């Protein structure tokens, strides 16, 4: 048994409803406009990831005592490349950490610098371990690798950076760069060194 309802009358919607609809349309238009603007800016700037690599590395003055104290100096050539045509980069703080087997064996900093567009800058990093105490297991691993002539190290950077496009400067971003694994030879720099590209996370 169909219970036919009386046909709804086609009366004009109340003014309140009209206002809500208007606001919704204006909001939607604004969102689309802002989205389009961002898209156009993005396409004009075409931001590209910063590119990092380690081009050379070696270990010098290595001395690991029987009580697992490590002295050594490390030499790395870090290449920082900004491939962007319209974006330059301020590096306000750069921390370097050198790890072996997840153990920090050395730390350092790179002085603040400004990197222009399409610029590659090489940093010669001289770092060292001064009487660093290693856990037994890690010291043992290091001795084994030492006798093989090269050790596998990790270099990490933590930086606070800002981008500059034209006159506009962005807020600060944290950047993490991980270069691993770096096969580092004792003493001989460059000898068959395999360039490592790093992971960049902003
Ligand atoms: C390592 O250091 C110890 C103690 O400082 C020293 O006696 C030893 O000669 C050093 N070895 C090398 C190869 O430099
Ligand atoms: C490391 O160097 C310090 C002095 O800089 C020295 O006292 C210590 O014995 C050295 N340790 C090793 C293992 O060579
Ligand atoms: C990269 O920028 C640095 C610092 O401004 C400058 O000294 C260097 O010459 C530039 N390198 C290239 C390849 O443009
Ligand atoms: C850095 O280390 C390299 C290789 O050991 C050396 O030739 C250079 O003189 C060092 N530079 C500084 C500033 O200590």
What are the salient characteristics of this protein?
202 residues; alpha+beta; Immunoglobulin-like; 2 domains; eleven-stranded mixed β-sheet; 2 helices; 11 strands; 52% strand; binds 2-acetamido-2-deoxy-beta-D-glucopyranose
What's the layout of helices and strands?
Elements: H1 15-45, E1 51-64, E2 69-82, E3 87-100, E4 103-110, E5 113-115, E6 119-133, H2 136-148, E7 150-165, E8 168-169, E9 173-186, E10 196-197, E11 199-201
Parallel strand pairs: 1-9
Antiparallel strand pairs: 1-2, 1-10, 2-6, 3-4, 3-5, 3-7, 7-8, 7-9, 9-11
One 2-acetamido-2-deoxy-beta-D-glucopyranose binds next to strand 2 and strand 6.
């Amino acid at each position: 048994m169909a219970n036919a309802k009386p046909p709804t009358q086609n009366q004009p919607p109340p003014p309140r409803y009209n206002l809500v609809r208007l606001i919704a349309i204006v909001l939607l238009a604004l969102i689309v406009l802002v989205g389009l603007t961002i898209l156009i800016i993005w396409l004009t700037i075409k931001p590209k990831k910063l590119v990092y690599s380690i081009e050379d590395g070696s270990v010098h003055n290595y001395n690991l005592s029987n009580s697992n104290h490590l002295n050594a100096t490390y030499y790395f050539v870090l290449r920082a490349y900004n491939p962007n045509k319209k974006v330059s980069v301020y590096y306000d703080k750069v921390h370097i950490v050198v790890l072996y087997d997840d153990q920090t064996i050395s730390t350092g900093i790179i002085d603040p610098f400004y990197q222009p567009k399409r610029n590659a800058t090489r940093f010669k990093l001289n770092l060292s371990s001064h009487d660093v105490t290693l856990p037994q297991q890690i010291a043992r691993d290091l001795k084994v690798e030492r006798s093989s002539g090269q050790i596998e190290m990790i270099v990490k950077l933590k930086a606070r950076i800002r981008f500059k496009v034209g006159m506009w400067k962005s807020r600060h971003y944290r950047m993490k760069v991980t270069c691993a694994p770096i096969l580092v030879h004792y003493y001989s720099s460059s000898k068959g060194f395999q360039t490592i590209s790093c992971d960049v996370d902003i």
